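Escalation from tier 1.

The customer reports that the assembly of two entities below gives different structure tokens on two consecutive runs. Tier 1 could not reproduce it. I'm attaching the input and our single run for tier 2 to review.
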Amino acid sequence: MTRPPTTPMRRRSVLTLLAVSATTLTSGCIRRLRTITGWQSSNQMSLEIKTVSADADPYALRIANQVAEWFRSAGIDTTVTPMSNEELLRQVLLNHEFEMFVARPPEWIRTPDAFYSLLHSGYTTASGWQNPFGYANLNVDELLKTQRSATGKRRHDAVSQLQQTIATSQPFTAIGLADDIRAVRSDRYTNWQDRSLRSSLGYLALERVDEQSQEGTTAQEQTEELGVVMNDTRPTTNMNPLSVEFRPTDDLTALLYDSLGYVPERETVDPWLAASWKFSEGDPGPIASVRIPADLTWHDGTPLTAGDVAFTYAFLSDTTLGGGIEENPDDDPTTVPAPRFQGRSDLVSDVRVIDPQTVEFRFVECQPQVARRAFTVPLLPKHVWSNRTQPASVGGIEVGTATEALVTKNIPPVGSGPLTFVENDPQRSLAFETFDDHFLTRKEHSELPAPLANGPAFDRLSVRTVGSDATAVEMVASGDVDVTGTAVGAKQVPRIGREDVLDLVVKRSKSFYVLGYNARQSPLANPRVRNTLAQLIDNEYLVDDVFGGYAEPAVSSLTGTDWLPPDLQWDESDPVTPFLGTDGELNVEKAKEAFRTAGYRYNDGNLVGK
Amino acid sequence: MNLIEILSQVVAVVLVLLPVAMVIIVGPNRLRTALSDLRPRVREIVPIFTVLGIVLAINSVVRDSGNNLSWIIGLNVTGYIHVIEGQFVAYLQSMATPALTAYFGYIYVFGYTFLLVFPLFAYLLHDDVRPLYEIVIAYIINYSVGLLCYVVFVAYGPRNFMPELVEPLLYTSWPHSQLLTSEVNTNTNVFPSLHTAMSATVAIFSYRYRDIYARWLPVAWVIAVSVAVSTMYLGIHWLTDVVVGVILAVLSAVVAVRLGGRLSRGSAGFGADWIGNRLATRVRGWRRDD
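Tier 1 run:
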């Protein structure tokens, strides 16, 4: 991509080169010139941070700007390039076209096994959140394997060691866990605090305000609508659960697509659509027999059977279903896994249909606790998605190496979830209705906790989009909608407080802001450089200044879980890469010293290195 | 409050301002005589308004795909603009007061709409259709070139580039206005400022035809300058966008004057101008049809 002119043309060095060549040429000393050109002076280190615009995210750009300022103080020429959400994910996760980026990885990174697909060197060429950093560390690979198969203390030790290594070698710098701030109205729905609206469970856990307490009880007959305003137009144009750029979370698509299991609390997976599952030992990994209830149907009325479940896993691991995509006839056919779920679908080595209600899963070498993660992927109807295995094309011309499944808008979506798709107006709105045939609405699901087992408290869910979080809050205040579906920035807290009709809901999210490095290229390929850069970042200051205190600084992405070792606990400062300065003020001399130790030098205040 | 309400607010304000301004600027006498003799003039200007309508319709259809295309082929120039002008907009915002914010907010939404609409009616009431022809052509050129720039350049405004220094004042003080502005444009389309280009165009023509409506000249200039300042004050545009917007306005006015003169004079003297010739033939074709 483009960037502003960085280093001014090094006129001096060009002149020197010309002068030297003139001298050497006249003296006939070509060999000498050749020797000298090996010693050309090097340029200032320059880095670009890609992130989203302030409209799209209240914090990301401000983090990037502040980090860039610290880097500049340390003599690094740093630019920040804002772009749209969709574009950032495309450039970073699909094309790996970046040096650094500020973004929020999905919430699933907060379980130890998530590190496997996030950082294993075997995933550096994959797409999506499969090692976008291009990080390769053989010790880490070994630890990742150990934590998969070990249990108890051995696993705990491996995970601790893993976090230590990551914190030192810095494939990414964790900034902090941000709070989700939302404006809600409680006159029609309650239970906003129960679960995060970052997941579909947040919507399903809502409860309707008791009809008797409202004026006029005739409301029973009319459609109960839940109005949601989002500062993100992506859901209104694309409903594909496999799309990397359009799906930062599954908040809406998981309402349309059920999965076998769900995550009630962190680190456990309980049956959702599945009636039950039973694990047994196998070779090399465990075997699970999963039973699904009879009489389930997709939204279009087609029966949902074990065949669809088996299809889903085969399809997610290769969306060409064995057909492959070759760019040239001589190439090896490639498999095209669905990047959003690759880490989880790769846990499964084989899925077999035993009978219409039973599926047998064979897993790679891992223990059942890890294997269960695979049950959280969305189930896809075979009769819809088996037609999307061909290479994606524009006007009949095949472009790139994606299958139709990965690029389709998938409108209207056909799932089996508690809500069905009704309509969408691209860039503006979206509407779902409850699915009468869903298992939540017809069966006693005693295993599910109360607010979820009752099914949705509304008949219709309407999503409207706006361009900024201030407008989103105002839409809730004026009664057009019930809640800001996308979290708003800390700056909106006073606005929410001023409005009597609004309730402020603040929930510590499980979603991190990270500064990601592209370790595929110099100078960021050097872990010492990344470690030093991390010491130029004052998380504590960012939490106060950018997040207005609505965040928690962190070193490891497992902060807030039982997996965090005591020595990675945040204790007023970063225990591994402490800030080289105080209160956001960088100590330039210390920073220079750190870079000199890393083998770099300073030229006129500019950080230069080979 | 929703989009329809915001939209009807704008329409209502313009509908109130328009007759008042007509009486004051055009004058009751001219209004009376011109209105009695409106039909032939309206027939004469139908073709050019059809073209304007087509351009606006194309815009609303291709805006989304234009934005997508822009991300594929466009040049992200935000950083360059910042290098050129630095923190000028932040400096401008440091002078913000609630009263100024309210003034510029209303200017940006209501003042701008009124500024664009008034000349269309005022010049329609003039005997000669030439001013109307020229200004509509200038609108079309501004719009088309602007759209082209929006595809070729990806640029975010100051509020989206240095949020720690520049407040999105329009949206923090009047959040609902964003329902309207996001309908009209996307946040990557800031280079050049079409608000400035269109307003400057009106100002230029108010000077060119100051003999016709002398009172319009000061009004147009005050609003036009306010609009240009408001785009920066509200954190939406860079100074660079405004400067390029003014340049665009001057160029389109020059082209519009040349083209408009020929079109309104008829076919004589067209020979050399290929585009003008074709356009004229088309326009005459339409005229014959109705």
